[in-house]
Specification:
It comes from Haloferax namakaokahaiae. The chain is mainly alpha-helical. The chain has one domain. The strands form 3 sheets. It has a two-stranded antiparallel ribbon. Strands 2-3 form a two-stranded antiparallel ribbon. Helix 3 packs parallel to helix 5.
Length: 290
């Protein structure tokens, strides 16, 4: 078998191969995909795309997985048994709290999914962990870098990450509601809305973020995370995708506060000194070109 086609024989070989794959396709993964995703989602919401392209569940899940790949590949070598247990427990929690939310209205407020996000179990999309857990991990990694030595203080670290996760939802939820991903209902006359999102949603995210951050803080070794971050320049590229995708969607719908918050995440990425500005340079050749 040719050298370039040889399958990896060990876990380390597989991890190295995945690192190369992501590293060589950073622009496509973290700029091209979110830009196209934003265009397709807005076009779907505006009724400009015909079925089956409009809000195609497969394309949404596939695109999300591609944009998540820098983070997933980055943390893969750090998955010890403890990490597997922690992430597994967090996955179970994500399903449980989402099911509770759509059946009882707690803790986010009453809502329902307005579009098909793929196969579901008891009304909960099976792809939910792919949507939720990486948000928390991105916030965790960003805070570790921005806090520096202050991240050693447990209280400072946890509070900072929880607030960062909450800020990510300030960007995500208004954009998702504008697209029609989900919609809140049973809102009282005195309900205070933030771009169509009730404040109860953010109170619920404080609860979920706290549990998720505690789980990840227990599951992963911080020193190992920082070492991996130091040697893996693409590890926060999923956050680049987040800024481009949801910043663009919110800008289209005129949700300017979420756009500003998305911009603050972009500034935070630059301040980490881990963001490679070469990512934004258009490659001479795209991966699909011969």
């Amino acid at each position: 078998m040719a050298e370039g086609l040889r399958l990896p024989r060990t876990r380390r070989d597989a991890e190295a191969a995945l690192d190369r794959l992501v590293r060589e396709n950073r622009f496509t993964i973290s700029v091209f995909f979110p830009l196209n995703g934003a265009v397709l989602l807005v076009a779907s919401a505006m009724g400009w795309l015909p079925d089956p392209l409009a809000f195609n569940a497969f394309l949404i899940l596939f695109g999300t997985l591609v944009m998540r790949s820098p983070l997933l590949v980055g943390v893969l070598p750090l998955f010890t048994r403890r990490a597997v247990v922690g992430v597994g427990a967090l996955t179970a929690y994500a399903y449980a709290i989402e099911y509770t939310g759509i059946t009882t209205g707690w803790p986010y407020g009453w809502f329902y999914y307005g579009i098909d996000l793929g196969p579901t179990v008891a009304g909960v999309p099976i792809g939910l962990p792919v949507f939720f857990i990486p948000l928390v991990m991105n916030a965790y990694l960003l805070c570790l870098l921005l806090l520096g030595s202050r991240a050693q203080n447990t209280l400072i670290r946890l509070v900072a990450v929880i607030l960062t996760v909450l800020a990510m939802d300030v960007v995500l939820d208004p954009g998702a509601v504008s697209l029609g991903f989900w919609e809140y209902y049973r809102l009282g006359e005195d309900a205070i809305l933030f771009y169509g999102v009730p404040l109860s949603n953010y109170a619920g995210w404080v609860v979920s973020a706290t549990i998720a951050v505690l789980a990840l803080d227990w599951a992963f070794d911080r020193s190992a995370l920082l070492t991996r971050l130091d040697s893996t320049e693409f590890m926060l590229d999923d956050l680049v995708s987040f800024v481009i995708l949801w910043g663009g969607i919110n800008a289209w719908f005129g949700n300017w506060i979420p756009v500003v918050v998305a911009g603050l995440f972009g500034i935070g990425l630059l301040k980490t000194d881990r963001f490679d500005s070469r990512l934004l340079r258009i490659p001479r050749r795209f991966p699909w070109q011969s």
